[in-house]
Prior knowledge:
- This protein is mostly beta strands.
- The protein contains four helices and 36 strands.
- It has helices at residues 12-24, 188-191, 536-543, 555-560; strands spanning 42-48, 54-60, 66-67, 71-76, 85-88, 92-93, 97-102, 114-115, 127-132, 138-143, 164-168, 192-195, 213-216, 220-224, 229-237, 244-252, 264-267, 275-280, 286-293, 303-312, 317-318, 323-329, 345-351, 361-369, 378-382, 402-407, 418-423, 431-435, 440-444, 458-463, 469-470, 479-480, 483-489, 515-517, 524-527, 549-552.
- A six-stranded mixed β-sheet has the order 8-7-2-1-11-12. Strands 28-27-24-23-35-36 form a six-stranded antiparallel β-sheet. A six-stranded mixed β-sheet has the order 29-26-25-30-33-34, with no helix packed on it.
- It is globular and about 80 Å long.
Amino acid sequence: MTWTPTWPMNALRALLEYRRTVVVMVLHGFAGAASAQATDLIISEYVEGSNTNKYIEVYNGTGADIDLSNYELRLYSNGASSPSNTATLSGILAADSVIVYARSSSATYGAGVTVLSNVINFSGNDAIALYKNSAPAGFVDIFGNIGCGPSAEWSDGTYHTADRTLVRNANICSGIAVDPSGCLFPTLAAQWTQYAEDDVSHLGSHTMACGPTVNFDITSSAALESAGSVNINLVIDPVATTDQTVYIHLVNGPGCAYGAGNDYITTPAVLLGDSIAVIILANTATAFLSMNINDDALIEGLETVNCTMTSATVGLNVGVHDQHVFTIQDNDDTGAPTVLEPGDILVVGITSSIDACITGYDDEISFICFKDITSGTSFYLTDNGYERAGTGTMTWDDAEGLVKFERTGSTILAGQVITIQRKSNTPNVGIDIILPDGLWIRTSLGTLSNFNFAASDQLFFFQGLDTDWNDPTGPSNATYSGTVLFGISTNVATPWTTDGTSSNSNLPPGMSCFSLALSPSSNWHKYTGPITQTSQGGWIARVGNVANWNTYATCALFHSSA
C-alpha cells in the first residue's frame, strides 16, 4: 500500500536535529546594546575534552586593548594551593576579542590557537586562574577552587567540569577574584552554560552583555486548548532603572495559526512582522506575554509556537535563554485507541550512553509510528530477550524490564519522532517519553524493574493487554500473547541468536521483516539514509538496511550530526 504522511517525511532529519536541540536545552543568546563594560579580562570558555583536547579562552570586554604581558595563566593541579605551572601571556588583545590557549596536541579546534602546553594540561579536578602581575596585582578570574582537589571533578549533579565544554554566560561581566571558601565551585551552574564533550563550536568569539538582561524563565511550556489565557514569563536581572522594551518574534508550527477565530492571540498583540513588543517597567524583575488560546471543536495534533527574543531597547540585553516553545494540546480527541500492527513502528535512533550529553540519563530511543497515536493508545517496551531458555521454548526472559506507556495527551500525528529516555540508576521508574511531550502514563509491569539498554542488547515493542504477559515462577519462562511490533538488536557478534545470556535473543516468529540488527558495535546509532517520501514498505526497507545507519564514537558526535 502507499502511505501518504500527514506531514512531510523529508523533515525527518531536521526533526531529529530538533529533538537533539530541545533535549539538551542549550540556547544561544543575542547580545543587545550593553549599558556597561567589563573592568578586566575573564575566562570565557573552558574545554575539558577527550584525550588531550583542552582549551581555555580569554575574553577582553573592557572596551580597550589590553597588554597580555601583564597577565599569567596558572594551573593548580589536584588540589595544589600553589601553582603547578605558570605561563606569562604575551601580545595585545584587542577590545571585544578572544584568545584561545591550547595544548600542542589539541586537535578538535581548527582555528588559530596559542600553545601553552604546560598550563593547558588540566583535568576536571584542577583549578585554573587568570592572574594580573601588574598593579593592582591579584587574581582576575578563577575557575574551580584553588587548594581543593575533588576526586574527579566539581559537579552539582547537572553541571560538570570533566568531559564537558563550559561557556561563560553573556551576563557575566567580571571574573571570580576571590578563591571560594571550602571545596566548592559555587558559580558553576550560575555563570556557565554546559555543552557536550569536545564541542568547540563556541571557541573564537564571545558575547558579553553587561547590565540589565532579560531571559525566558523556562525553555518550554504547554497548555490544554481549554486553558484560556496562559502567561509566558520573562525575568530581568539586574532590573533596569528605566522602562525598556523587548521584541519577541513568533513562528507557528504546522497547523497552528494566529488570530481571532484561529488557534490563539497574544497580549500584547502581534505587530507587523509577527513580533510582539513587551514593555518592561523600570525596577521590575518580571514581565510576561499572554497566550490566549481559542478552544475550538476541531480534532488537531500538537500545535507549537516558537518564541524568540530578537532585540531590545538600549539599556536592556537579551540573555542566553532567548527562546521558548509553547505547545497547545488539543482537548477534542475522542477517537478510539490506535491499533498497531507489525511494521507500524520504526526505530530511527538509539543510544545506550547519553550521560556525557544529558547529565543523569543513560539510554535514549527515538522512533516513528505510521499511524496517528490517539489518546488512550498504549504500547509496551522490553529489553527481555526471546527464547533465552533455549531455541524452541517460545518463552521470554523475565529478568529485565517491561514498561507500558499509555497516551493521555492529544493525538500524535503519524511520522512524528517520539523519544524515550531512561535516567541513570533508576530503572523503570526513570523511563519516560520526553518528545514530542510528556503526556503519557508509564507503568512497570509486575516486579520487572531492570530495564537498562546496553551496547549489546535487544529491544522489542509490543501492543496488547497487560494480561498478555504471563510470567510464572521460574527463570526465563514468561510468555506473551499480544502483538510484537518491532525488534532491534545491537549485538554485533551474534545478532538474533540466543546464547542463554541477557545480551542475546532469538527473533520471534514472523518478525524478520519488522526488525533490525545494527552494526558495527557502538553506543550510538542513528538512521541517516534517504528521507524522500515513499511507501510504508519502502520506509521499512530503508530503516532495515544497516547501510542507511551511522554509528558514532561519542555522544557529542551523535547529537551534533544531521
